[in-house]
Please model this.
Amino acid sequence: MIDQFVIGFKPQRWWGSLAAVDFFLGGTGAGAFVLSMFLNSLPGMIVGWVAVALGAVALLADLGKPGRFVRAGSQAGRSWISRGAIFTSVFLLFGILRIAAQVAPGLPWASGSALGQAVGLLATLGALGVMLYTGFLLSQSPSIPFWNTTMLPLLFASFAFTCGVGVVLVMLPILGANAVDLRTVELLGMALVAASLVLLWAYMLSMSSSTVAAKESVRMLTSGPLASLFWLGVNVVGLIVPLVAITLVYLSNAASRSSLALALAGILVLVGGYIFRYCILKAGVYPPVIDL
Model:
């Protein structure tokens, strides 16, 4: 007689806290850079560029050896880690050139010139690649059904833009409300936070009707060991409270208090953005194995 039994779900160990830091810094920095270009905010562009650079350092530390980062770009045809390294390199190069054009208008690639527009476009494309590649990297993991969906890159990009606007909000008391169009920032904040909330729950509902392993990941987030982080950290602190706060400021048009209130909302968005990435990584489990 052959005994047959199922070994329980096995959590993934490859991506941990350091990867969450890399994903958070890269996505947040790229989102902040693109939004700051749109808002014509040089300080926001600088902060975004530095965040992506720090994310690259975190990735280097996660890979363990500096030589691995150099080799990472050599497998672009088949590896999203390689593509991510290329996107990051393109962004860092053309992003600093775009910043330099803002600091020194006399450069050949000045912002208003054709060359300057090309530099800005390449920096933007690199930033979009940085925002998307982490989602694609995880979604190419058929052994972890919770990640293996085309919705994940969109979700990561949405949270990247949301955290990017969080950076802009945090900087308002330092830069002054007149540094950017405050009403535009408020509208962007409301739209991006709301979009992330909707996409997050569309993703969760989709996974709740997927494979057994994906359902287990949803359970871990909604009623299991990650539930408090997911409900309180991601949904309440990171999305719902900031959305309500930004909306109230927008409707009240209280200019004397808006910068501080929006900055506090931005801090909550950033906290929730990191916890979101941590939760998604920690909820990844392999399907149960049938042993004969």
About this structure: The first strand starts at residue 5 and ends at 7. The chain has one domain: 5-291. The domain at 5-291 is CATH 1.20.1630.10 (Formate dehydrogenase/DMSO reductase fold). The two ends are 10 Å apart (CA to CA).
